[in-house]
Design brief:
The protein contains eleven helices and 16 strands. The chain is α+β, with helices and mostly antiparallel strands and 440 residues long. The protein folds into two domains: 93 residues, OB fold (Dihydrolipoamide Acetyltransferase, E2P) (Beta Barrel); 306 residues, Bira Bifunctional Protein, Domain 2 (BirA Bifunctional Protein, domain 2), CATH 3.30.930.10. The two termini are 43 Å apart.
């Protein structure tokens, strides 16, 4: 027997026609006929047919193939041969040895007809068996790489902030409380306060990709109790426009990277044509958005201060109709529905210098210019009914010279969900966490 050196990926087999190679992967399908055995082996780059003419009782390869089951992990060593009849790239492997590394039990717990919730129970099998699911993680990697490239190019320092907090951030609602050496600790809802501490520490521009926890009992297609946040904080800004400009350029850069690396695969496997957005994105104030929506019959009582999901979809559709753009910044949210640390313009104290970014009608980002003046910040906290004492560590950052700054928090899963045309954030996450799901 000729020994192959190292593992060859299925996608590289064309370069090895006529040679003996070793391929490792999973059994995709088996067709074990009376005279010939066909086994399709799949790795993360593609599938190849293994073709073996039965040799009888003393045929070790025949016996090995006969003992396989779908999804068994195997290593096949054999000669790569051209065969134009074979649908899989006109190639096949004529095996010399077949090693069952791990035999899969039968029957499998999921198949192509299994619904999403049950597939999530067996997520490792779900991802392994579906190239479209594996594509998600390749796209996620490229998207994050593109965001980091842009952030680094703008002089950002990547930070890793604590996920354990001694006091509940912001209002204290929607936080997970846990025991911590005889007292309570809380999982961070956001790296917000820590990002601002980094700004006060003289780190000019802050960037983080990390876990975020929200104890929201929400059972929607867009909520999760743990998700990956993309957070940015920028010092010495002239206004909130600087933050929006940073984000739109970062997204345009990162999505262009995805188009270059995965655009064809996304179209082939998911039927979605991804295009890099042009900048600048359209902007519209909350007041303007509400006026447009109410003229269409939204919120007939005229009482909603915030946009509900229907309002977000409608205003995004309106902007797309008017401008052809899928993205829109909705700005100047009312003070009543924004945190105490959002800056308020002196000539219009009823609104905040804040924004949400919508993509195809889904909110993917919230951002704002922060209030950096200690006395104003304390006053705004008290107006919201918050006592300064539990937040003293945070407030101290503003007592000794804090620069004007602003930032944003983006949900990575939501961006991927829209990018890839998924119906639910559950599909845009490896292992989803929600009110009813803590496993696997």
């Amino acid at each position: 027997m000729i020994h192959a050196t190292g593992r060859v990926l299925v996608s590289d087999l064309r370069e090895h026609v006529g040679r003996t190679v070793s391929v490792s992967g999973w059994v995709n399908t088996l067709r074990l006929l009376s005279k010939v055995q066909f086994v399709v082996v799949r790795d993360h780059t593609g599938m190849v047919q293994v073709t073996h003419q039965r040799g009888g009782d003393s045929d070790a390869v025949e016996a090995a193939l006969q003992g396989l089951t779908p999804e068994s992990a195997v290593r096949v060593t054999g000669r790569v041969a051209d065969n134009p009849i074979v649908k899989l790239h006109g190639l096949e492997i004529i095996p010399e040895t077949v090693e069952a590394l791990s035999r899969a039990e039968t029957p499998l717990p999921i198949d192509e007809h299994t619904g999403l919730e049950h597939r999530l129970d067996w997520r490792f099998l779900d991802v392994r068996r579906r190239p479209a699911a594996q594509l998600l993680f390749a796209v996620q990697t490229t998207l994050e790489q593109g965001m980091r490239e842009y952030a680094y190019g703008q002089g950002c320092t990547e930070m890793h902030t604590p996920k354990l907090m001694g006091t509940a951030s912001e209002s204290g609602a929607e936080v997970f409380e846990l025991g911590y050496f005889g007292r309570s600790a809380y999982l961070a809802q956001s790296p917000q306060f820590f990002k601002q501490m980094a700004i006060a520490a003289g780190i000019d521009k802050v960037f983080e990709i990390g876990p975020v926890f929200r104890a929201e009992p929400s059972f929607t297609s867009r909520h999760a109790t743990e998700f990956t946040g993309v957070d940015v904080e920028l010092a010495w800004i002239d206004g909130v426009e600087d933050v929006m400009a940073f984000e739109e350029r970062m997204l345009a850069h990162a999505i262009a990277r995805v188009v270059d690396a995965h655009g064809e695969a996304i179209l082939e496997l998911l039927g979605v044509e991804v295009t890099a957005p042009t900048v600048p994105f359209p902007r519209i104030t909350m007041a303007e958005a509400q006026q447009i929506l109410r003229a269409q019959g939204w919120d007939p009582q005229g009482v909603k201060e915030d946009l509900d999901p229907e309002g977000e979809r409608r205003i995004a559709a309106h902007i797309r109709e008017q401008t052809g753009h899928e993205w829109v910044f909705v700005t100047h949210y009312p003070t009543s529905i924004r945190p105490f640390y959002h800056m308020r313009p002196p000539d219009s104290p009823g609104v905040t210098l804040s924004f949400d970014l919508l993509w195809k009608g889904l909110e993917v980002t919230t951002g704002a210019q922060r209030e950096h003046r200690y006395d104003v910040l304390v006053k705004q906290a008290e107006e919201k009914g918050l006592r300064p004492e539990p937040m003293q560590d945070y407030l101290n950052c503003f007592r000794y010279g804090c620069p004007p700054h602003g930032g944003l928090g983006m949900g990575l899963g939501r961006v991927l969900m829209v990018l890839l045309g998924f119906d639910s954030i559950r599909e845009a996450t490896f292992l989803f966490r929600g009110p009813n799901r803590l496993t696997p």
